[in-house]
Amino acid sequence: MRRVLGGFRAIGRSPKLSLGCAILLVIVLAGALNGWLRSLIQKHTGTDPMAVSPNHWVHPNGTHLLGTDQYGRDVAAMTLDGLATSLKIGIIAGGLATVIAVVIAFVAAYRGGILDAILSAVTDFFLVIPTLPLLIGYSAFAKHVSLLQVGVILAVFSWPGAARTIRTQVLSLRARSYVDLAKVTKLNSFEVIFAELAPNMLGFLALGLAYAAVGAMFALIGLEVIGLGPSGVIDLGFILNLATSSGALTLGAWGIFVAPIAIASLVFFALTLINVGLEERYNPRLRKVAG
Hints:
mainly alpha, MetI-like fold, 75% helix
């Protein structure tokens, strides 16, 4: 509880950290409350925003804030659906990749020896495997690719980078006095790792989870832009693919093109602010420069 309260106090003391967390929280809430926001759009427009209608390529106006696409669907509602789907892939792939990285990195760094050498070799092996060509090949030849399948594939091949970084941090922490005290009190390796070492890296692990989730979101956007994403889902990349393939900009429908790019940029901007804020807060050298 003290660590949680200390984390909130640290956020409040850093303007960059506060702004980054606020932007990220608003985006996550918008995706989580997608159904409720869509109902508000439906009340505002008077029709189902995702239903096909004759209002093709309506420019942004008071009724359709971001306009409509070539099928008459409301772009604002599509963007909310796309954001919700992108957040789902981030949770699936980012969460699974972080769990794999944490388990492998903590066990390897704490136990050391032959086990560390084997797990480090496995990590290096997965690190050099190109993820995007595998996803493109799988998506191109599989008849139906689900969101869960894409998330698992992204997680399986995206954990090594985080594992190497976490391992480096654990190697520096395992020599601390409180770890030696935990060993003296006869705690087993599992208890030392997850009761002593992991709680002291919660901020670092949370940031790693956020970056893993965003990496998965951008990977899905890349697949959808080239038309090889999951079947039957709308995400930010699908909207971009729809905009480019239909020539939306030449028709003046800038909303369908700008909205997904703006959301993806805001997510990246928020994480950058959080990263810089944490560095200024906890890095002694930057703390002197930033005050």
